[in-house]
Amino acid sequence: MTKIVASVFEKNNLPSAIFTAFCGGAEIGQAIALDTRIPLVSFTGSTKVGQMVQQQVSARFGKCLLELSGNNAIIVMDDADIPLAVRSVLFAAVGTAGQRCTTCRRLLLHESIYQTFLDQLVEVYKQVRIGDPMEKGTLLGPLHTTASKESFLKGIQNIRSQGGKILLGGSAIESEGNFVQPTIVEISPAAPVVREELFGPVLYAMKFQTLKEAIEINNSVPQGLSSSIFTRKPDAIFKWIGPHGSDCGIVNVNIPTNGAEIGGAFGGEKATGGGREAGSDSWKQYMRRATCTINYGSELPLAQGINFG
């Protein structure tokens, strides 16, 4: 991609280095954060590292655009289209092996449909084909690194120690590559592990009684990127998207937490960082705003009608 973009710049007599890719460790990110020649740093990564970047950039009075962790929930109401919701949860939780900031990590089910929904979801999970993502029909590829695989296994240990019940999966797959099983967990929304982003195909299932309770659970985590509700009721929809609904930057209805945000203002609130990429206002983040007043006359106009003599 860098070479393609560089060729476009060169054809237009512009320096190809305008668009540059650096591969390396934390030292590259730190150098960018500390460099006073870079007025704006757009950072995508974990909340922990994003906080460090923001502190370093702010210390030199630079600006930050942060796209950080997500801990996204899908709420399924008792009147929802169950087959549609099941397919959506599968895509949102298993796609890209759970390695998207908009991956669904929490599934909130109305108590009246809780078991029915879980039974159907477990059945479709069992049909997930794991393997080379370049091969047609593969739904779940590997985790990115060995460290990601170890983080998954450590997360499963924490889940078990905090009372979580593994309904499906929960293990690494003994094979070449960093493959793990897609995992569904029953757990209390009050468990500390639920407040953290486990970057892998792990889905926390929990039940609720009222929409108010579901919204409170959705908003109870530090992160605030994406969220979704499945319902046919207009009053529930408008409560969800209103000021007393989801506190996330992306608030969906009858679609997953991921996959439909292209063209919209992408980003989240709270520990997700508050930045926005794409969408109608994103260009403003990359601009320097200046207020300019030009006097074309020979008089000196002053504000508030002041007469300075």
UniProtKB/TrEMBL annotation:
Transmembrane segments: none annotated. Residues 4-289 form the Aldehyde dehydrogenase domain. Belongs to the aldehyde dehydrogenase family. The active site is at residue 67. GO terms for molecular function: aldehyde dehydrogenase (NAD+) activity. PROSITE patterns: ALDEHYDE_DEHYDR_GLU. It is an enzyme of class 1 (oxidoreductase). Its EC number is 1.2.1.3. It holds the Pfam family Aldedh. It catalyses: an aldehyde + NAD(+) + H2O = a carboxylate + NADH + 2 H(+). It comes from Aegilops tauschii subsp. strangulata (Goatgrass). InterPro entries: Ald_DH/histidinol_DH, Ald_DH_C, Ald_DH_CS_GLU, Ald_DH_N, Aldehyde_DH_dom, ALDH7A1-like. This is aldehyde dehydrogenase (NAD(+)). The keyword Ribosomal protein does not apply. Homotetramer. Keywords: NAD, Oxidoreductase.
